[in-house]
Amino acid sequence: MNLSVAEQIAKAVLYEGYMLYPYRPSAVKNQQRWNFGVLYPQAYSEAQECTDPCESQTQCLVLCVGVPAIEIKVRFLGIIERTIVQLDQ
Q1: Domain boundary assignment for the chain
Q2: Whole-prediction pTM value?
Q3: Distance between CA 12 and CA 35 in Å, rounded?
């Protein structure tokens, strides 16, 4: 597989549910809380009786011909804390 194609697929999966539009409350995906690959702090996960995961595991099968080599890239979205201030006009 071409690396640029894999990057495009990874980006689409990573941002699904966060950045894709249009957002409509009537859409099935917006009526249920479900996020792909979200990990929570361990204390929060345990307080929720581990219904929200705090760890993840990935297994990959690698087939190679010749000299074996593998490159792994891990990507994630991080939480950004923002403060919104209303200005008097």
Answers
A1: 3-35
A2: 0.48
A3: 13
